[in-house]
């Protein structure tokens, strides 16, 4: 029995065993004992995860895939199935333990998956996985490049991101219309946002909302505090600021409000 790929779930099943092994092997497996695979499909990654010295969990909403996995991978017991990743309460399900996340991620919810991970960064020290190439490039983007933007800054505030390799369309069933890219994210030790995460997201999104304009123009919508009106970052574009610059700027902005 094979699983039928379902378009509404964004399923494109990886068929190349070597690539699957390379994705799994990209995890360091250091500092955690559990791995959560998102969208396992027919278990092309699962097979190699189960060979590792970690406890493997799977987040899958396709009942046909769940039946297939239970039949072909008996090591996966009932408690190893966690349902919808985007609805999973990670600290509750895993008892506050740290775990890695891995997957050939559905392209239609790529950004949501990344935001779910950064919302739980204190529990997820590492992630390896495959996204649409454009998303992988944007996630790993660096300042002063076309790929650098909102997704780059929001993810890299919590993780160091490395673009590992490109995967071509012909190793999937059905083949997607775009190339894919595999990235690895490792939680970083950058100075924190000190509880200013909401303001940080507002500044990043507004700054890149008009990326060809200087920050002084693009941030007007937020109401720039008087004490920040001559800040040096306001005279340049968002794409010229590093992630650390955005973090520092956010903390200074909040401090200037005196709250």
From TrEMBL:
Task: State a GO cellular component annotated for this protein.
Answer: cytosol
EC main group = transferase
The protein's matches in Pfam families, at most eight in alphabetical order, are given as: RrnaAD
Q: Which GO terms of the molecular function aspect are on file?
A: 16S rRNA (adenine(1518)-N(6)/adenine(1519)-N(6))-dimethyltransferase activity; RNA binding
Keyword Nucleus on entry: no
Q: Where is the Ribosomal RNA adenine methylase transferase N-terminal domain?
A: 19-189
Q: Which PANTHER family match?
A: DIMETHYLADENOSINE TRANSFERASE, DIMETHYLADENOSINE TRANSFERASE-RELATED
The entry's family comment says: Belongs to the class I-like SAM-binding methyltransferase superfamily. rRNA adenine N(6)-methyltransferase family. RsmA subfamily.
Protein's UniProt name? Ribosomal RNA small subunit methyltransferase A
* Organism, as annotated: Epilithonimonas lactis
Starting at the broadest rank, the lineage of the source organism is:
Bacteria, Pseudomonadati, Bacteroidota, Flavobacteriia, Flavobacteriales
